[in-house]
Design goal:
The chain has about 240 residues and is mainly alpha-helical. The chain has a single domain (about 5-225), classed as Ribonucleotide Reductase, subunit A (Orthogonal Bundle), CATH 1.10.620. The protein has 9 helices and 4 strands; from the N terminus they run H-H-H-H-E-E-H-E-E-H-H-H-H. The protein has helices at about 5-15, 20-30, 45-55, 55-70, 120-130, 160-170, 195-200, 205-215, 215-225, and strands at about 105-110, 115-120, 135, 140. The strands form 2 sheets. The chain has a two-stranded antiparallel ribbon. A two-stranded antiparallel sheet has the order 3-4. Helix 2 (about 20-30) runs parallel beside helix 4 (about 55-70). It is globular, with a radius of gyration of 20 Å. The protein binds zinc ion. Zinc ion binds near residues 95, 96 and 118.
Length: about 240
């Protein structure tokens, strides 16, 4: 297997210049309730460290992390994923199965009758062009197939979040408290999220199912907004090295 050098360069470009690592951290924290993680909120000291190391970081991510802190204890609101905090939940890359976190690089295509999103043009090419039964007139039977359920949300589209987390097995032995919590203050039951909190949330929705339900016009508008980085269309922070 040979990976072309320009793809390596582009991977570094995403990691180094397009904020990839910061997007991953934000996405993992957003999805705390669908996993077994306990990511504690940041302090002012953490904010200073990030801003010092990555100038521009606070302008892009600081407000969201302050919201993460504000929403970390159940207090009449939903988990952050279901609150309006200027965050666009990412679509999944059909090929590499990671979220399309570098928003400006996301591309779409209709393959095998289904609209799919990709994290980058190279991943679109892999699915739509390379992993086909023939390539440039030659049969390519051993290229593999990118089939099946490729985003977990598809399996739970329309489910209540309490049922999703129960089905995944992320509930403690008391039968109601979630394994995951968005803080480390685990000694006080009043600060712990339970299935009762999740039960009140709107149902889980699969980004890919929604994408395929859109009209062509709406889908184009969605894509244009997505690649602008969502509502604010913010630039990536510079890396301080
Ligand atoms: Zn990809």
């Amino acid at each position: 297997l040979v990976i072309p050098h320009d793809l390596i360069e582009e991977a570094w470009n995403q990691i180094w210049n397009k904020g990839y690592v910061h997007e991953v951290a934000q996405f993992f924290a957003t999805g705390w309730l669908a996993n077994y993680w306990r990511i504690d909120p940041m302090t002012d000291k953490d904010f200073e460290w990030f801003e010092y190391k990555y100038p521009g970081w606070y302008d892009r991510y600081g407000k969201w992390w302050e919201n993460y802190n504000r929403l970390s204890r159940p207090n009449g609101h939903h988990p952050i994923v279901a609150e309006d905090v200027d965050y666009q939940y990412p679509h999944r890359c059909w090929t590499c199965m990671v979220p399309c976190l570098v928003r400006e690089d996301m591309v779409m295509d209709q393959v095998d009758g289904q609209w799919r999103t990709y994290c980058h043009e190279e991943c679109r090419w892999t699915d739509a062009v390379a992993f086909r039964p023939t390539y440039q007139g030659r049969e390519t039977p051993n290229m593999g197939q990118l089939i099946g359920k490729r985003e977990w949300e598809t399996l739970y589209h329309g489910w209540n979040w309490a049922d999703v987390v129960s089905d995944m097995g992320y509930v403690r032995d008391d039968g109601k408290t979630m394994v995951a919590q968005p803080h480390l203050d685990l000694g006080d039951q009043k600060k712990m999220w339970t299935l009762d909190h999740l039960r009140r949330m709107p149902p889980l929705q699969s980004p890919n199912v929604l994408l395929n339900e859109m009209s062509d016009e709406d889908r184009q508008a969605f894509h244009a907004n997505y690649v602008r980085g969502g509502p604010a269309g913010r630039p990536a922070p510079a890396d301080g090295g």
